[in-house]
Design a protein that fits this description.
By secondary structure, the chain is α+β, with helices and mostly antiparallel strands. Helix content is 27%, strand content 35%. Keywords: Signal.
Length: 348
Amino acid sequence: MSRPSFGLPQLVLALLLGALPAAGRAAELATWTVAPAPAAALSRHDGTVEAVRQTVVSAQVAGAVVALPVKAGDRVRAGQLLARLDARAAEQQAGAAAAQVDAARAAQQAATLEVRRQRQLFASHFISQAALDQAEAQYQAATAQASAQLGAAQAARTESGYYAVKAPYDGVVSEVSVMPGDMAMPGRPLLTLFDPAALRVAVAVPESAAPGLRAAQAAAASVELGGQRLAAPRWEVLPAADPLTHTVTVRITLPAGAVAAPGGFARAWLPTSGLAGASDNRSRILIPSQALVQRAELKGVYVVGADGRALLRQVRVGPSTGGQTEILAGLALGERIALDPQAAARRP
């Protein structure tokens, strides 16, 4: 069937009235028809976000908290001051130990000079061997006393440093358990610190599923976090089971850049091999990643209707692998989407 021809006036009128055939408007727009993808045999489980490195910081010595320069939510660097305790008594002890070191060194110097004189006198046969031995013993005792005092001073100086509690690594302060004026004791928590660069999700699954999960660890797992489904770079099954709940813990590493906080909720999908539970048997929708368009926080695709018009529609996306992105919501089977979002945006 031949396409009707239009003269220039008729073409202008057709454009104004929308009379051009739909096929003519979308003829050059490459599209993709949404079809079901093979469903992965996955089982859904609720889990909890954990930090790979999370530390409850406490003091090594007793003392009143005199300074607390950080608060919950602050980012800190390794070595940064987190809390300061009253160290006046420790500093006085360190000063006394330093003075004792000076006294011991003076005694050692006097013993050194004395043993030199005694050796010269013994060489000239003016003193006996017993007198020389006594001088040598006094010199060795003075040397040992100086070393002991030096070690005690170093220990006192090291202990005085315990009154300044510092961050062991770069992280975020998640909780502060004390206030200025509180008494810090060894083992009493002062604050909690975690590293936001390394997060994971912990999931409890039935103990009977552990052998099947270990056999399927080469299969992919994913995590839904904050409305997005993320592919997990790795996951592992812990070797021990909980004797009370008879479950094993599965740790799923979150990809770099995932935004989450320890203790938060996450949903995980694990291979169902040997796993009891409800499977996620829905049909998956995979589209070419090139069809996605992002406008600020919105991700969408251009859906081409029967009349050839391309309309932008927001979608919720999952993980992307091999040039394809999973669509969790926003598209139905059989719909057509534009493969070139820029070309679709320029069309009337």
